[in-house]
Amino acid sequence: MACLRWLLVAAWIAAPVATALATPRNFAAGALIIPMDYCYQTAFAPKTLFNPPASYCSYPTRNTYSTDVYGSGVLRAYGLVWRLLERGITVFTIIDPAKKKIDDADFSITMPACGSDCNPVRLNDPAGKLATTFYPDSTIAYRGGPFVIDPAIIDPDPTRNPKGLTDAQRAIEFLKADNLAGAGARFQSVVTHIAQGSFTAPVQKKMVGAPPHLAVLNLADVSGATAGSLKGIWQVYAYLCNSGLNENSNDCSQPCCGTSGGVYPSTQGTVFDEFRAVKDFTSGGLLKKPYGVLVMPHWVAWAGDGTSSPAPTADEDGVYQAAEAFLDQGGRLVANCASIGGLEKAAAWGSGSNSMVRMGAGLLTTRGLSVNGPNYLNWGRQNNEAWGYSAVASPLVQTGDFGLESVYGHVSDFLPNTAAGSFYRLGVQSLITSKSLDGSAADGFDLMALRRKDGDPSKGALIYLGGDDLNPEISGIRLFMNALLFGDYMAPSKELARSSPVIESGKIYQGTYIQPDIAATGYPPVSGHFRRYSQVPNVKVASFGDLSADWDAAEQIPWTRRIDTAIPDGAGGWTQLAFDGSNQSQLGPYVGGKDPATTISNIRAGGLGGIDTSTPAIVPPSKVAGSPSRPTVALVGAADGMLHAFDVTDGQERWAFIPASQLSRIASSGAGVGGSPMVSDVFFQSAWHTIVAI
Predict the structure, then answer these.
(1) HEC string of 499-550?
(2) What count of other Cβ atoms lies within 10 Å of the Cβ of residue 411?
(3) What number of other Cβ atoms are within 10 A of residue 247's Cβ?
(4) To the nearest 10°, the Cα dihedral for 441, 443, 448, 449?
(5) How far apart are CA 141 and CA 304, in angstroms?
(6) Cα separation values, 674 from 615, 621, 646, 694, Å
(7) How far apart are CA 199 and CA 178, in angstroms?
């Protein structure tokens, strides 16, 4: 430690985590409601379903259609919303920001007691085959992120709305026309309700205008890719077809999707275009047309033996570089299964060797992923297997009361490859994570995660969804369609500073913490930055990231780190030792947790914790203590339970120290160093020493 000695460290005071907000909106009688739960929407042959309890599903409408000829209404609802948006009809997504579980109610409609004819809603039945009322109770509740169309909105554009109808009336007219289309009907299985009275509901997202045009990767001529690459396009066909976004045929087993799909550059579909040639994709084709979303399905670009990691081919390099350029200009990327492995340099679970190709570090991780944990197949089927939602009110994860199971794939689930010293980059949101209810199964693997490219809010979002063919799984397809419709949704966060900056030799040193909208699922529980600025202009900026920093220590935490701590020596003193796996038997009793080895590994692989109340101290070489060539370091405490020492020349972490007082709290993410370090040279034990106290 270069003659720096330690005293005990004060406790951390954590910053509160904000709650996701939605905007309350009053909807008048006549609002059209598209239910998205198993009770009030149709669904056929899903792998697993939660059986809605009688308390909220006494009078279901899901059984009003007994044939699956027209598909599952809960999936076709996405296609219906897509087509309504294309026609200029505004659609509201309703999600209760305060709900605790994925199948909790999002809103309800209550009518006063006014006799047998007073029901909260009535069925909208374009075919005229069903009773107009069906719900004898005075209150009905909806789950799963239902959609609502406001009867108070009237599109003034006469080309789109020549009759001057309200949005709700136009949607009903569209459903009537679809019902009369015979074999061309797409949305007969979608149950819709009409509100009998006014109600207030929390609007999570107001959707206006046509959805983004999709670019779908279907490259058959990529050097290095395997034949398995091509089947991904058939899965995308099926997802879109099952959602009603197809033309010419209701048979989703046939090539999809008529005029909905085009092939770049010769034809343009109404929903998506395929890229089938590398030169078209890598020579700027992706940037030439107004594509909003790039879909990378099961695209296998990897070393097939599963043990080596050859350099990517020129074609593969070009594909990844084009995808990153698309993200840089604000486009969204939805990656599924093997494509995640390619983007992140994946390794088989338990292995430190990368088996899939990537041109460098991953886009979500620093050194790649581990994939397919011990219980990756069909997680969610057993009674002790559940899912953890870090943002249960996010529109990206809404599946309502439908069950969710993981499915087989090259990448069914994933985690940073800690064996290679990898960790998630700043800004990653783990949306859905496997969770064991009784601790008997290995859990903690992500099924769905996202991040803005480079953590930059001006760049596009990357969404990773594990699993190969999601078609047997209604919730899996819902997650995919959520990513297409809501992929620009990022749980908001703020970068804040409460500690004072320090100015030393004309340089400004400032620590910050990220106050997220959602609770973190990994380590550290609160992330942050530590930057050095040579100069700060006297102008107003929106965020710390808008300022030009010399370096940011958070972006360069080394994977081969020196982290030390201290434990009692049994004689009233302390023993300093490395906080790593070689000392897990000694550290285990103090670290706690059910798996100390994993805890230690995850903490070592974690990024920089948030810097809230700790003001940094700049420590130059001492004239009397230690070596005169000792590097100048900045010392600062963080929410990861460590006191960090950063080299002021480049921001590299020289070492970190976990005080003994924080060891017992670190497994539960409760550790933190919130005090400001004080440094002094002190003479004792016949020598000068630099002492750090907090």
Answers:
(1) CCCEEECCEEEEEEEEEECCCCCCCCCCEEEEEEECCCCCCCCCCHHHCCCC
(2) 27
(3) 16
(4) 180
(5) 50
(6) 9, 25, 17, 9
(7) 28
- The sign of the dihedral angle between the CA atoms of 470, 473, 474, 476 is negative
- Whole-angstrom Cα Rg for the chain: 28
Q: Is 298 helix (H, G, I), strand (E, B) or coil?
A: coil
Q: CA-CA distance, 430 to 588, in Å (whole number)?
A: 27
Maximal CA-CA distance, the chain? 97
- The token duo for 186 is 């797409």
C-alpha span between 191 and 73 (Å, rounded): 7
pLDDT digits (tens, 9 = 90+) for 214-256: 999 888 655 544 444 455 677 888 888 888 888 755 555 545 6
With a cut of 90, say whether residue 174 has pLDDT above it. yes
Q: Which H/E stretch holds residue 174? A: helix 167-179
Only one residue has tokens 């060539």, namely 629
pLDDT (0 to 100) of residue 352:
45
Residue 120 backbone dihedrals phi, psi, to 5 degrees? -65, -35
At residue 399, what are phi and psi to the nearest 5 degrees?
A: -130, -5
Q: Tell me how far apart the alpha carbons of residues 115 and 123 are, in angstroms, rounded to a whole number.
A: 18
Q: Is the CB of residue 473 less than 8 Å from the CB of residue 404? A: yes
3-state secondary structure labels for all residues of 441-508: CCCCCEEEEEEEHHHCCCCCEEEEECCCCCCCCHHHHHHHHHHHHHCCCCCCEEEECCCCCEEECCEE
Question: What does the alpha-carbon distance between residue 238 and residue 469 come to, in Å, rounded to a whole number?
Answer: 9
pTM for the model = 0.75
How do residues 183-197 score in pLDDT, each as one tens digit? 678 898 899 999 988
If you average pLDDT over every residue of the chain, what do you get? 81
Taking the C-alpha atoms of residue 20 and residue 396, their distance in angstroms, rounded to an integer, is: 13
**Where on the phi/psi map is residue 30: left (φ > 0), alpha (ψ -120 to 50), or beta?**
left
* 3 state SS of 649: coil
Alpha-carbon distance values, 251 to 183, 242, 243 (Å): 10, 9, 12
Strand partners, 274: 216, 263
Residue 500, both tokens: 């004072």
**Strand ranges in 67-223 using DSSP code E only, listed in sequence order:** 91-94, 105-110, 121-124, 139-143, 147-149, 192-195, 199-207, 213-217
Question: Which DSSP category does 285 fall into?
Answer: I
Q: What integer pLDDT is reported at residue 50 of this predicted model?
A: 57
Q: What are the tokens at 560?
A: 């081969």
Lowest mean pLDDT among 146-155, 413-422, 500-509: 413-422
- Phi, psi values for residue 335, rounded to 5°: -110, 140
Burial of 376 (0-12, 13-18, 19+ CB in 10 A): buried
Alpha carbon 345 to its chain centroid, in Å, reads: 19
Rounded to an integer, what distance in angstroms lies between the CA atom of residue 401 and that of residue 604?
38
End-to-end CA distance of the chain: 17
CA distance 627 to 645: 17
